[in-house]
Specification:
Helix content: 10-25%
Structural class: alpha+beta
Strand content: 25-35%
Shape: flat
Low-confidence stretches: 666-677
Number of domains: 6
Number of helices: 8
Strand order of the largest sheet: 7-13-9-10-11-12-8
Length: 677
């Protein structure tokens, strides 16, 4: 007789089966038809009840710990005990310049007030509203203009709410913000004594209560279980407590988040008024865009909360180690996909007293100067007095592998299937090796092994590996541009190294096309001569016409090149069609007539052949090794593979636009290096 139930299986069907088996072994139910009677319904009820209870208890156990929590409200609650508030949506920010000619010679100043609106061009059929978040005042220039330079505008709608505090109905002093799509970094809290007394006391958000006294005018921010944000105040011990009748004024931005990124055209739809009351309507104001809208972000995900909360707690609101800087940066700048921090003393030559923070954004875009300064300013509140945080762009190095796969035709797989399997194997390899991030290294042996194991019919794998970097010139400025691969470059003819350079060597680097201020009418490129010199040329038919044999230098040992001095006015397909005068259609000679009409955001791809393609490491802590989506060729066994060293077959022009790379999830990844000071 079975006198015990098996309790380890908790799915409905197994529970019912166990109950039935148990009853069938009892003398009272011998030969009873459980399936054809009302007892079956009773067993269903018992099984469902047991299953529900088991599920409930399992969920309770899971939700009791941060690392196993599945519900956002649970993760948020656990994070709250660690002093961590998940970040909200973030509003995209653009930087513009407004210029208006002064209408009254006696006017002295003009102010762009908080709330002034700008309308974006449509993105996917939708226009977005951008606003100014703080008053900005400028003085009339010597040229008789009001010029608002580097004016920041944020996407969203400014919303205001007002609450009157009544202690009897709200003893915890908690005020819930009704909008879910708030950018909490834009919240402004002020308190007035009563509705009749409009004098405002500005309250400051705090996370660290170390320096907060009983009279400090501060507020605290939390996310509640409904996903709304709520603010609350002190208790006269930690922060000032509200008194009956005080009025709380709240202002914040409700944003669309990342949907409004990448807008580069705006219309001014407000009015400016100078110190004498002169009104400047939109038609009299010239608007130019310096930085397109960027850094908009969604609210923090559950996985991100679970990863960041304990690490932010470990930093204890101070930045001492490199890990502290990286963790705090991810908290104050939510659009960071990964962060690396390192001391300046680790550089060659060392730079003491500075810590460098390189940020890889979720959108892949580079930070503008304003955002970098803002992050650095926030970090100084956590840093030691002697340390200056400097936010920099990551050094993006792209590895471009061309894959040639030979397969056994009698094995059963066709070329399409093999190509699909190889692509999937490459994605799996990238995920496992955490490539496309800081501190990574490309190893061709691991890459080839993953491809070989992708399909049983693969018999051989051959690679062509090149390195890609970008020069980002400033339009119509004469500069010298330096980039590096971080590793040695291929020597096309070592036997000719000792010569005087008269014996030609094959180039091992080639740039994409660009145009210069002295030759605005022709596409040029540059290559090396094999002896450490860069030279520019343009093509006429099948001939290269060299225009400068001393256009820069190349260090083959370090992979560093210096291009210039040169004045670039266009690159790739982003060339000037106006503002130039071409005097010779063959040579492209001419001049720039109006620099304001020249294109901006230029980039020139440069493709290199590495000396050692077996291992290509990150050259600095702030370097990211990106793997370009490879070109895959599948052919039967016996097909001659292309040469592994692609001399005379570099194709930088296909990279005029930044290439697509293998996507690797970085939800819970923060890359750190040890810093010393």
């Amino acid at each position: 007789m079975v006198d015990r139930l098996r309790v380890t299986e908790l799915d409905f069907d197994t529970i019912k089966t166990n109950l039935k088996s148990f009853l069938q072994q009892q003398d009272e139910f011998t030969d009873y038809d459980f399936d054809g009677s009302g007892m079956s319904i009773l067993l269903d009820i018992l099984a469902y009840n047991t299953h529900y209870n088991a599920y409930y208890l399992n969920m309770v156990a899971n939700e009791s710990f941060l690392d196993t929590a599945l519900l956002r409200e649970s993760a948020v609650s656990h994070a709250k005990t660690l002093g961590y508030t998940p970040h909200s949506k973030r509003s995209p920010t653009a930087t513009i310049t407004l210029t208006a000619n002064v209408a009254n010679l006696h006017a002295g100043t003009c102010t762009v007030e908080e709330g002034y609106s700008f309308l974006s061009d449509q993105i996917d059929g939708k226009s977005y509203n951008f606003v100014v978040l703080k008053d900005t005042t400028v003085t009339k220039t010597d040229q008789g203009q009001y010029v608002f330079t580097n004016l920041a505008i944020n996407e969203g709608q400014l919303v205001t709410n007002q609450f009157t505090f009544v202690e009897s109905s709200n003893p915890k002093q908690v005020f819930t913000l009704p909008d879910k799509d708030i950018d909490t970094t834009t919240i402004k809290v002020s308190v007035q004594d009563s509705l009749s007394n409009t004098a405002l006391k500005i309250y400051t958000k705090v996370d660290d209560t170390l320096d907060v006294t009983g009279t400090s005018e501060v507020y605290f921010l939390n996310e509640n279980r409904d996903g709304n944000y709520e603010i609350y105040f002190g208790n006269d011990s930690v922060g000032r407590k509200l008194t009956d009748g005080e009025v709380i004024d709240l202002e914040y931005l409700v944003t669309s988040g990342p949907e409004a990124n990448n807008n580069s055209r705006f219309s001014f739809i407000g009015r400016m008024t100078d110190s004498l009351g002169q009104v400047y309507p939109p038609v009299s104001v010239n608007l130019t865009v310096k930085d397109k809208s960027q850094q908009g972000d969604a609210a923090e995900s559950i996985e991100s909360i679970k990863y960041n909360a304990p690490r932010y707690y470990s930093a204890q609101y101070r930045a001492v180690t490199a890990q502290d800087y990286a963790i705090i940066t991810k908290n104050i700048y939510s659009n960071a996909s990964s962060v690396v921090a390192y001391g300046g003393d680790s550089l060659n030559p060392p730079i003491y007293g500075k810590v460098y923070i390189a940020i890889k954004t979720k959108t892949g875009s580079l930070l503008n100067d304003q955002t970098k300064k803002s992050i650095a300013a926030d970090l100084r509140g956590y840093a030691m007095a002697s340390i200056d945080p400097v936010v920099i762009d990551p050094e993006n190095v792209y590895i471009y592998p061309k894959v040639f796969v030979q397969y056994d035709t009698g094995c059963g797989s066709d070329t399409s299937t093999i190509k699909t399997n190889v692509s999937q194997a490459i994605e799996d390899w990238a995920t496992q090796t955490e490539i496309n991030n800081f501190n990574s290294t490309f190893r061709s042996s691991q890459f080839e092994k993953a491809i070989t194991l992708a399909d049983k019919c693969v018999s051989d794998v051959s690679l062509q590996t090149t390195i890609l970097r970008y020069i980002r010139p400033t339009t119509n400025q004469t500069n010298t541009y330096t980039i590096s691969t971080g590793s040695a470059l291929y020597n096309s003819a070592p036997s000719k190294d000792g010569g005087d350079g008269s014996n030609p060597k094959e180039p091992i680097l080639l740039s994409g096309s660009f145009r210069t201020a002295d030759r605005p009418g022709v596409d040029q490129q540059f290559e090396d001569d094999g002896y450490g010199n860069l030279r520019t040329y343009y093509n006429t038919g099948t001939r290269k016409i060299y225009t400068n044999n001393a256009a820069g230098t190349c260090n083959y040992d370090t992979g560093e090149i210096a291009f210039g001095p040169v004045s670039i006015i266009g690159a790739g397909a982003n060339i000037a069609t106006a503002g130039i005068n071409v005097t010779n259609n063959t040579t492209g000679a001419g001049s720039v007539t109006d620099s304001t009409l020249l294109p901006v955001d230029l980039q020139i791809p440069v493709q290199f052949i590495p000396a050692n393609s077996n291992s290509i490491p990150a050259s600095t802590p702030g370097t990211i090794i990106n793997i370009v989506l490879p070109e895959i060729t599948v052919a039967p066994v016996g097909t001659a593979p292309p040469p592994t060293i692609p001399l005379n077959s570099l194709t930088p022009r296909v990279f005029d636009q930044t290439p697509s790379t293998i996507e690797v999830s970085t939800t819970s990844t923060t890359n750190l290096t040890t810093a010393s000071y």
